[in-house]
């Protein structure tokens, strides 16, 4: 019988944050550097005219149409930026999985970028594609229901939504499975979750609830810091902030960056624990008995 505990797994994010606060804070710094570099890459890749239009306070109808046209033509730039975003996400995922599954592997703050991270990035892209396909089918069903498809269309949309949730939960351990097994194996991850749908769903719901609790707490503190800095209008131009307000603003930015890292920790670490508890290696075959000597 499996010893998998949904509540224990969902609490793993709190455990990691409590036991490794320095690591989580350092991850926030690394994340900030990564996001800054990616932002600079985006600014360099996108049309300067587009950035000028987006930065305008009052947009005319012609501006909105022009922005839409330029965005449609900027898809190569978005693909260029998507690659480092997926790489950064996979790096932090692997760091979390490494802490839970292979804590003896150190690395820089337990972060590396190698074959495991590349496989995680690839499987994340694959899961996004699967999710987009499911959302597209759901959108079509809801559109048909809105156009007079009647009760059958609504039932179909609900069935597609339920199927999407079922598939998502059954494939929820594909990322820790990929990291632990050093290979992308949807079939293996699917088999690992067989018979555990409801417990995995409960774990995911609890993990999201715990993250929302942390998000609310950090958001309240961040809002208080914004108020101390003079409000949203004041921090729009930090050049005119006083020393105390500037410190409050910098603390606000730090909290926002840490929140992004905490989100990955709170959602990814339960998956690693679930994999660890559900993955049971088969017992080794007994050694053949030696023949009795005469």
TrEMBL record:
TM spans (from-to): 24-46, 77-100, 121-145, 151-179, 200-229, 241-259
Record's keyword terms, sorted: Membrane, Transmembrane, Transmembrane helix
N-terminal signal peptide: none
Protein name per the record: Glycerophosphoryl diester phosphodiesterase membrane domain-containing protein
């Amino acid at each position: 019988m499996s010893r998998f505990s949904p509540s224990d797994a969902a609490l793993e994010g709190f455990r990691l944050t409590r036991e490794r606060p320095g690591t989580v804070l350092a991850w926030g710094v690394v994340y900030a550097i990564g996001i800054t570099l990616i932002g600079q890459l985006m600014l360099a890749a996108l049309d300067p005219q587009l950035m000028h239009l987006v930065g305008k306070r009052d947009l005319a109808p012609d501006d909105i149409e022009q922005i839409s046209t330029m965005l449609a033509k900027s898809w190569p730039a978005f693909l260029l930026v998507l690659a480092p975003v997926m790489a950064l996400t996979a790096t932090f995922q692997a760091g979390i999985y490494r802490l839970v599954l292979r804590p003896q592997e150190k690395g820089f703050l337990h972060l590396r970028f190698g074959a495991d991270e590349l496989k995680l990035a690839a499987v994340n892209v694959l899961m996004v594609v699967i999710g987009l396909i499911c959302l597209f089918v759901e959108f079509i069903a809801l559109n048909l229901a809105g156009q007079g498809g009647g009760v059958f269309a609504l039932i179909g949309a609900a069935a597609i939504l339920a199927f999407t949730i079922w598939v998502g939960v059954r494939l929820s351990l594909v990322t820790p499975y990929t990291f632990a097994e050093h290979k992308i194996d949807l079939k293996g991850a699917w088999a690992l979750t067989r018979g555990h749908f409801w417990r995995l769903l409960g774990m995911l719901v609890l993990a999201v609830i715990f993250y929302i609790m942390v998000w609310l707490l950090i958001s309240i503190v961040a809002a208080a810091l914004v108020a101390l800095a003079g409000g949203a209008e004041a921090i729009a131009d930090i050049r005119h902030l006083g020393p105390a307000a500037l410190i409050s603003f910098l603390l606000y930015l730090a909290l926002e960056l840490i929140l992004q890292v905490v989100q990955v920790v709170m959602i990814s670490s339960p998956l690693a624990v679930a994999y660890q508890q559900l993955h049971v290696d088969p017992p080794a075959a007994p050694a053949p008995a030696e023949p009795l000597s005469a």
